[in-house]
Amino acid sequence: MSSIMTSSYRRQSDHFEPQDIDPQEQRRLRGLLEQIDYTAFVSNREVIGTTLAKVDAGTFQRLAVMVAAARARWVAEALRLSESGSPVTPDQTARLNAFRLAYEELAEVYEGMRRMVERNYLTLK
Question: Positions of the region Disordered (predicted)?
Answer without folding.
Answer: 1-24
